[in-house]
Amino acid sequence: MEIKYKRLSADVIDYYFFSEIIALIKSMEDVLSFKYSIIITTIIGIIFFILFMCKDSIFGYESIGKKIMKLKISAKDENIINKKFLIKRNLSNFLKYPVYPYYILFDYRTNFDEKYDISIIEKVKISNKF
Hints:
mainly alpha, two-stranded antiparallel ribbon
């Protein structure tokens, strides 16, 4: 599978994963009275936003989708990849979200990725066979 399709699949997996977490929290709304539904909906929105911003820094600089699709974030200067940087990257992607999938399919990299020379690459599995 081409890397751009793997990357798009990873984003779909991430979205689905976080949506399931939100659905679980949202199910609590049925237990509580209607007057709390606006508060719960607001809290859920905030939680979803925070999870999306931190998705690449929760599990060792890779999101759940990237782990499943065996992808990783790579930069020429590996020192720039830290939690704060990844949150900035995700915020940049979030702000472009309606067109973000098109960046992946047609351009492969977003403007932020090009600015900092970042690529999403496949993990290389090293064989121990001699």
